[in-house]
Design goal:
Layout lengths: L1 E3 L6 E3 L8 H7 L3 H8 L3 H8 L7 H10 L6 H4 L1 H4 L5
Antiparallel strand pairs: 1-2
Length: 87
């Protein structure tokens, strides 16, 4: 938790770290179309990744991490390459 004491009142912000892969990202945003818009990708590309037409690679994991503003991380997208994220 972070505390901000600048205003005279304590403001506490909870920082929640999520572990999210592409399928979970799509579920969070309800549709592939909405998720693809957020990521700046086509809905077809999202579908192809989810269905294994295009495999997840290190470059793709890094790109998705950046595009999702770290909602998805390389560790969650490709743990066999990047390892498990530290707690």
């Amino acid at each position: 938790m972070l505390t901000n004491k600048n205003s005279g009142a304590n403001i506490v912000k909870n920082i929640i770290f999520t572990h999210m892969n592409l399928e979970q990202f799509v579920k969070k945003h309800r549709t592939q179309a909405r998720a693809s818009k957020i990521l700046g990708l086509s809905q077809g590309m999202i579908s192809a990744r989810l269905n294994g037409v295009y495999p997840m690679t290190a470059d793709v994991a890094l790109d998705l991490e950046k595009r999702s503003n770290r909602e998805m991380t390389r560790f969650d997208l490709l743990p066999e390459v990047f390892g498990e994220k530290a707690a």
